[in-house]
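User: Before I run my own analysis I want an independent prediction to cross-check against. Here's the chain; please return only the structure tokens and, at the end, one sentence I can use as a sanity check.
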Amino acid sequence: MLSYAILIDGGFAKRKIGTAKAPATAESFRSLVAQLQQHEALAGMRMHRVYYYDSMPLETAHQKPLGGELVEFGASPTAARARNLFEQLAQLPFMALRLGELAFQGWELSAKKLGNAVGPSVEVKPDDLRPQITQKGVDMRIGMDIAALTLKRQVQVIVLVTGDSDFVPAMKFARREGAHLYLCPLGQRVKPSMLEHSDLCFDLPPAN
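Assistant: Structure tokens:
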């Protein structure tokens, strides 16, 4: 019997199955996994494990350059929601979390403020500044797990839930080593290179 692993790009999936008003929850991901398991493309196969990739919330505090306001990122509702999500996901059966980190890179002017600017100068207020935060270690973890699952022959099929073309090299590697790569972009329009280097691209049926 063929076995498969589901690899979920968490940042991408949260945007696709949740909204600002109704963020994705652990139940949302449990339902997503159940839908994938029931998909005809995986009929008759055994699920090895689900891997979920995301970043730990930013816990540091930084002062804004204008006004000196101290922003405690770890105390924000977004950080609390992320911690709660990860705690609940870790309790789901056959779920393994692979968490990278977020790094604060300073403050930047909001795109909206620049877009509305008229003339050679612009007046900047504290609320016009947005934190510049980058994600580290997530893509690397996905690539390493694809390589490990493939080289150790732990699974024969990898189901990658993402729409990010940065994973094309890892996809190509898996196929060269004999694994089948199934892509599930959750309705996202993907680049031709992702279709070229996947064996099958499928979506989930609409919810009843």
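Sanity check: The helical segments are 10-17, 26-37, 77-89, 111-115, 138-151, 168-176, 192-196.
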